[in-house]
Amino acid sequence: MSSLRYLSALSLFACFAAPVAAQTWTSCNPLNTTDCPADTALGTNHTWDFVAASAGDPWNITAGTIISGSSGAEFTINERGDAPTIQSEFYIFGGEVEVWMKAATGQGVVSSIVLESDDLDEVDWELIGGNDTHVESNYFGKGNTTSYDRAVWHPIDKPHQNFHNYTTRWTKEQIEWFIDGASVRVLKSGDANGGKNFPQTPMNVRLGVWAAGDKANNNYTVQWAGGETDYDKGPYTMYVHSARITDFSSGSEYSYGDQTGSWTSIKIKPGNSTIEKELNAPPPMTASQRWNKLSPAGKIGVGSAVGASSLALVALAALYCIRQRKAGRKERAMADADFERETAQLMAYRQRMAKGGFAVSSREV
Fold first, then answer.
1. Residue 159, Cβ neighbours under 10 Å: how many?
2. Does residue 90 contact residue 38 with C-beta atoms inside 8 Å?
3. For the chain, which terminus, N or C, has the lower number of CB atoms within 10 Å?
4. What residues are labeled active site?
5. 3 state DSSP class of 323
6. Rounded Cα gap, residues 102 and 201, in angstroms
7. Which helix (H) or strand (E) holds 240?
8. Burial 55-92 (b: 16+ CB within 10 A, else e)
9. What is the pTM of this model?
C-alpha cells in the first residue's frame, strides 16, 4: 500500500494553482513554530515494486485512488478535481531517490516527483502531458517563489510512451539530477542564492499527477502546463513501476534545533527508525525452517513429545475398541437369552395346541 496530499501548486507557480492542490504544502512549518513533531527517518535504503503491490505502508494515499496494474502503480485523472498522489511516511536527510516512471499524457497534465521538507525546501521533476521531448528539473528553498528562473528543461525520448529512470542525488554540497543514469544537471549549494535557497532540511517523497491546465488556475500556470486541460479526452494516467530510496543519514528521527532551517540545525536521534525495522524485518519462517533451527536436543524433545502423543492416541483408540467389543458381547448375550426364552415359550405353546389345549392364559404365552 502505507502518498501525497495535493494542497498548493506542485509547479513553479505553486502559489497560483487553485482547485487541485499540489504537493508543495506542509502541516507544520518549524520556521514559524517550535512545537512541530519530529520527522520519522528512513535510515536505510529500500526498493518498492509497485507492480507487485500498490502503495501501502510506509506510504499514504493522500488524494484520489491508486491501483496496481501490470505496469505498476496507476495514478489516473478521470475527471476534473482528480489529483491522485502518494506521500512517504518517512523522511531522508540527504539521499538518493530513483523512480521508474511513465508520464501521463494530456494537455495541461503534470506528472511529478517531489522531495518536500516541513519548511518548504523542495526538489522536483515535472513532466508536461503535451511535451513529448523535454522534462523539467526544479528546486525551491523555504518556499521562496519570488522568482521562477530555477527551472531547467532536459531533452528526453517519449516520456509518455516509455518508462524512464529519474534520479535525484542530494547532499549538503549539491543536488544532481539524472535521466536513465546520465547526469543532466548539478546545483551547487552556493549557487542557490548563496546557499539560502539551497534545499537542506529533511524531506519526504511525493509522487502524483494533477491538472495544472485546469481552467480555474492562473493563466500563467495554464500556459506553462501547455494549455487548458480537456477532461473529456481522458483518462490520463501516470505509471510508477518502482522506487528506490536511500537515506544518507542514519537515526530514528530528525528534528529542528532552531528556526534557521539550516543543515547544521537538524538534530538526529540515534537508533533505528520504526520504518527501518518494519522494512528490514525478516519474513515469517516456514515450518521446515523452524525445524532446521532447532538444536539436536530440541529436535529429540519434539520427537519424544510427538511420539508420546502418538502412543497416547493409540492407547485411547485401543481402549475405545475394547469397550466397544465388551458392549457388543453383552448386547449379544442379552439377545441370545431373549431368543432362547421366546423359543421355549413357543415350543410349550405348540405342545398344548397338539393336546387340544386351546385356551391359553396370556401369562403362559
1. 24
2. no
3. C
4. 122, 126
5. helix
6. 29
7. strand 236-247
8. bbebbbbbbbebebeeebbbbbbeeebbbbbbbbbbbb
9. 0.73
